[in-house]
Write a structure and sequence with these properties.
This protein is 18% helix and 25% strand. It has 508 residues and is an alpha+beta fold. The protein has three domains: 4-311, Leishmanolysin , domain 2 (Leishmanolysin, domain 2, Alpha-Beta Complex); 330-471, no CATH class; 478-508, Laminin.
Length: 508
Amino acid sequence: MSTSFKSLLCLFALICLSASHYDGHQCDHDKQQQENPPEFIDIEEDFSSQGRILASYPHIRIYAHYDELSNSAPSSLTSYVRNDLAPPVIAWFEGALRVKYPVAGGKLKLGSSVSSLCGMKVPSVLRSGVSADYVILFDSRSESSSVVATSKYCSLASGSNRPVVATTNFNRQMFVAAKGDVILHEKNTYLLLHEMMHTFGFSSSVYKYWVSSSGRTLSGHVKSMSIAGKKHTVINVPSLTNKLRDYHGCSSIPGAILEDDGGSGTDASHFEKKFYLYENMATGSHSGKRVSSLSLALLEATGWYDVDYSYAEPYFYGEGQGCSFINGKCSSNSASFEEFCTGSNRGCGFMGHSGGRCSSDEKTEGCKYVIPNNDYHCENEDAEDDARFPSLEVYGRGAGSKCFSGDLNSRQSSNGATSFCFKYNCVGSGSGTQLQVLLGSNTVNCKREGKMSVDGYYGSINCPDPVSFCSTVGKRYCPRNCMGRGNCVNNKCQCDRGFTGVDCAMRD
């Protein structure tokens, strides 16, 4: 590939997440980014594989630079990002991605022709060279907006088009260091995973620079199409499209259907929220999101990476629901799919981690879903204060409870439907799977979907289908493959020395 890419239109991506607990999402383009767009830079890359993924090719090596963050942010925030938040996220990407065209000679070195990066002074270490294929510069600012963080490209390699340098900038008025709060730390972890995922290639400005398996720039893979009566940007790369067709059980899906709302920086740079509500690359910041194989498949489709799908988390929103899930409107299929709900009652979020109320937002195109609420979150110890049966329900990080709905109560007159957090066991296998829901000394044996009463109580709990529950919501797994800081043994993380938590993301 020639270096003539320097004459192409400049690339930029501005990505942001809202501080709203649920879904107030706002993205604004940065004027400085528009006036000073990133450049294509000349670095030596190894093209010897000519599209063949070689086992000897390295996992991507990421160099993180914190000087600008240290100069702009309080020491407590800098320490949190530098020591607690960024390292496990970087370790996750370094484990999940194998770069197809690594830096030749092993060191990324910038010459004198590169005068600045992201509007900042070039770190001196990059003049002498670092053992990395990718550089992320951390910074901060203070502004009265709902934006928590922004990420943008700074430089792409003139040979492969691959992003080489990017920055993530935290808004000090909105971003909150976790300070030991594991629920907030997990939210921040997903936020930074989301931000950096954009910089690796999931952004509308860079789609046109994706390359084929042979390293040639793709064309015709990004289209505008009408899906369920609305115009969407659709990406059709065979490997990605085939995976989505298999996932949904629909052979006519035209490709990855992207968000059509939210303005520049949001639309076309996220998965469509209606179809991928809990995927971490859907817009919004509500709890329960997961980094699925679909995000990794999209990064693989860029042509720049081979991916390790073991780093994906179990994901099942919309799985196997067929073409009508994609092509239908909620006015006609709200009651047809368990992903959606009707009315306004309290119930369980689809991922089973939290209770909430049935509602909708501006990006789900009229579809209503149970919006998770931290006050009913099964991993939130303080949620016990709002529990109907605090002596029976179980809350806390790693406590092993899931959300169950029903109108179970201790009075003959019903208290109405609500959500509960109970521990459970899955026993048996295949069609003989049974679900045991534990309520103190009582055990409810769910052999099939339906209402079940409990001795000594009025009302009932709603038994989910045990086969479905135990293979999705109730499936045990290692969150985010232990963040590259431990080994997954029997679906539980065994953390390396110095790290702790259900995902090994916290320092011991």
